[in-house]
Amino acid sequence: MVDVNLSEDEQVEALKNWWKENGKSVVAGIVIGLGGVFGWQYWNQHQQQVAEQASQQFERLTESVAAGSATAVTQAEAVIAQYEQSPYAVFAALNLAKVKFQQGDVEGAKEQLQWVMAKADDQSLQQIARLRLARLLLDQGDADQASSLIAQAPSDNFKGDIAELRGDIALKKGDRAAARQAYKEALEYQVSNSALVQMKFDDLAAAE
């Protein structure tokens, strides 16, 4: 660096010498720094464009699902394939599971729900997929597998819905006492559809 005690001419000469020794590295540092700034800006712009494209495709998908359009399956598959690492792929898979179930493709619906459980970063989305899959298994008469699936569920904001499902499974197996206890817990945990669970609980109480 330049010595502040040098004369003006000496400082100029010292600066020339310093620049000869360090100029290339300074320029390289500036270039790298600018490259990093512009590279980061480009990356952010690219990511924003991808997110906008994914959002538009997902919006069209939800419209197709709501309208019962035959294109919903291909649209959902496209979103999953193109944006697999994004939340849009997870939501697309949940929609695809719904469509496949409505079309009678139960195994296809299961596959999509299992995919969400494996791929979703958000625990809430994993829980939604788990509950839907367990409900589907129960509807098929496989109460044991449904019970095994929800037994693996972590305790979180969905514990009310999980308790309700435990009640439905217990009722399917003929264990009315266990079902009533599970419905009671579901109400205590503020299950999402409290009116329906209260009706289930009251029906069991009246029967006893």
TrEMBL record:
<dbReference type="InterPro" id="IPR018704">
    <property type="entry name" value="SecYEG/CpoB_TPR"/>
</dbReference>
<dbReference type="GO" id="GO:0044877">
    <property type="term" value="F:protein-containing complex binding"/>
</dbReference>
<keyword id="KW-1133">Transmembrane helix</keyword>
<dbReference type="Pfam" id="PF09976">
    <property type="entry name" value="TPR_21"/>
</dbReference>
<protein>
    <recommendedName>
        <fullName>Ancillary SecYEG translocon subunit</fullName>
    </recommendedName>
</protein>
<dbReference type="GO" id="GO:0005886">
    <property type="term" value="C:plasma membrane"/>
</dbReference>
<dbReference type="InterPro" id="IPR011990">
    <property type="entry name" value="TPR-like_helical_dom_sf"/>
</dbReference>
<keyword id="KW-0812">Transmembrane</keyword>
<feature type="domain" description="Ancillary SecYEG translocon subunit/Cell division coordinator CpoB TPR">
    <location>
        <begin position="16"/>
        <end position="205"/>
    </location>
</feature>
<keyword id="KW-0143">Chaperone</keyword>
<keyword id="KW-0472">Membrane</keyword>
<comment type="similarity">
    <text>Belongs to the YfgM family.</text>
</comment>
<keyword id="KW-1003">Cell membrane</keyword>
<dbReference type="InterPro" id="IPR026039">
    <property type="entry name" value="YfgM"/>
</dbReference>
